[in-house]
Specification:
Layout: H1 18-24, H2 56-62, H3 83-96, E1 99-103, H4 106-117, E2 121-123, H5 129-139, E3 146-148, E4 172-177, H6 189-198, E5 202-206, E6 224-228, E7 242-246, H7 249-262, H8 268-278, H9 281-300, E8 324-328, E9 363-368, H10 371-376, E10 385-386, E11 396-399, E12 411-415, H11 421-434
Parallel strand pairs: 2-3, 2-4, 4-5, 5-6, 10-11
Antiparallel strand pairs: 1-7, 6-7, 8-9, 9-12, 11-12
Helix pairs in contact: 1-3, 3-8, 4-5, 4-7
Length: 438
């Protein structure tokens, strides 16, 4: 990382920690870019002057030699590669500990996974509605596709297409979202990984609600990991990008050619904004997780089943489920109390702390005592914005039925931003008190 002539060679530095690596993984070579900018420039061009006809790279291209599309040494057309996007994917690969490729949105990334693995059976339960929509589109061309529950018996299928790019197609794809949207609950990845691999299937994880450093699904054995980078990776509610990370470069190249063929690339500005945001993800996500943990514990203390009800004098008229009836959050697992709505949860023997060593999701849900409270509280707050989405630096409250008609009208999803815990608590407390009779 040194620049200029410093005399004797410096000793090699130890491997950088994640926060440091995210700032320097895509640094230009100081020997050839001695005066490079500290913050990367955004490159907006879609096309580029071709290499000189007598250059080695031009000769290789004419002779059909394969390019390394992660670092081809030349830019041709932005549907193939582009410097800003390339730098972003380099940092994402470091963050996720695998080969990362970006798409135009999280849903586009999810649909790419369906096409890439081409399953005839998908095991899934609940999760983000956009992924279910992507499966429905994929199903149009696969009338034989079966959708089963995560806890159903998995069929062991013979492959219908030989492995030629690192993937066996035509079999089983197990799709696990953890933490789960909208509740923030954690699913037992090791259990599903063992079950999927025993049946010869692939297992993918939608880890949008808890990016590194909170969890790393590859450590539990996931075959691929997907994120809507629009959320915590972007973190500022100003971009739309999806990312898929796979274990091998061969699989990355297969996804790359899918992206080229479908044109599902993110825009240059979105790539630039994502690269900017990745520099601070460890600070943002850990702070959001810590605040959400405190908030979830306090909200739980207001419910009927709270093991330790709030003793704060300001909460005396709120405790006992008068406003908040139920709270879902990974920090409340494992739990012995039983949700009367019978939402699917992991077993009482599953403790998610080993799976999520960096903390729990900053997105979770509560169920109000009445639909009126759920509708009015988001519009009675000062620091929470009544809006959909999650993962931004600002806190949000979403009356979930406005986005998903099948949802309980009493459910509100909370996305915790970077505001101070005491301010968010006071804001909710005031809104609760104002809507006790709603």
């Amino acid at each position: 990382m040194s620049s200029g002539s410093l005399g004797a060679a410096l000793p090699v530095l130890p491997t950088p920690q994640l926060a440091t690596a995210l700032l320097h993984t895509d640094d230009p070579d100081h020997k050839t870019h001695a005066n490079h900018s500290v913050a990367p420039s955004i490159q907006t061009s879609t096309t580029f002057r071709s290499a000189p006809f007598d250059s080695q790279i031009a000769t290789d291209i004419r002779n059909g030699a394969p390019l390394n599309w992660q670092d081809p040494g030349i830019e041709i057309y932005s549907r193939y590669n582009q410097d800003t996007r390339g730098r972003t994917e380099k940092v994402l690969s470091k963050l996720m500990g695998a080969e990362a490729i970006t798409f135009g949105s999280g849903v586009a990334a999810g649909h790419a996974c369906m096409q890439h693995y081409a399953p005839s059976v998908i095991a899934i339960r609940k999760g983000y509605m956009g992924i279910h929509a992507a499966i429905a589109v994929y199903r149009r061309g696969r009338t034989d596709l079966k959708i089963i529950d995560l806890d159903d018996e998995y069929p062991t299928l013979s492959k219908t297409e030989a492995e030629k790019d690192g993937v066996r197609r035509g079999g089983l794809l197990v799709w696990v979202e953890t933490p789960l949207n909208p509740t923030g609950e954690v699913r037992d990845l090791k259990r599903y990984v063992q079950k999927a691999h025993a049946a010869g299937g692939y297992i993918g994880v939608d880890a949008t609600l808890a990016p590194p450093p909170l969890q790393d699904p590859f450590k539990q054995g996931a075959d691929f990991v997907m994120h809507s980078a629009t959320k915590y990776m972007g973190g500022h509610s100003d971009l739309l990008v999806g990312v898929v990370a796979v274990k091998s470069k061969v699989e990355w190249e297969s996804l790359f050619w899918y992206r080229v063929a479908t044109g599902a690339v993110p825009g240059n500005l979105e790539s630039y904004l994502l690269l900017r945001s990745l520099r601070t993800i460890t600070l943002r996500v850990q702070r959001q997780s810590e605040t959400a943990h405190k908030l979830a514990q306090w909200l739980y203390s207001l419910t009927v089943d709270a093991a330790h009800p709030s003793e704060d004098v300001e909460d005396k008229e709120l405790v006992g489920g008068k406003v908040v009836e139920w709270v879902w959050h990974g920090s409340l697992q494992p739990r012995n109390d039983k949700d009367p709505s019978a939402r699917p949860t992991e077993g009482a023997d599953f403790d998610p702390r080993d799976q999520m060593p960096g903390g729990f999701s900053a997105c979770f849900s509560i169920r109000f005592a009445s639909a009126g409270q759920a509708a009015k509280v988001p519009h009675s707050t000062e620091y929470f914005t009544p809006a959909t989405s999650l993962g931004g630096v600002e806190s949000l409250l979403e009356h979930r039925i406005l986005s998903q008609a099948s949802e309980d009208p009493r459910l509100v999803r909370i996305s915790v931003g970077l505001e101070d815990f005491a301010d968010l608590q006071a804001d909710l407390r005031r809104a609760f008190q104002a809507n006790l009779s709603a």
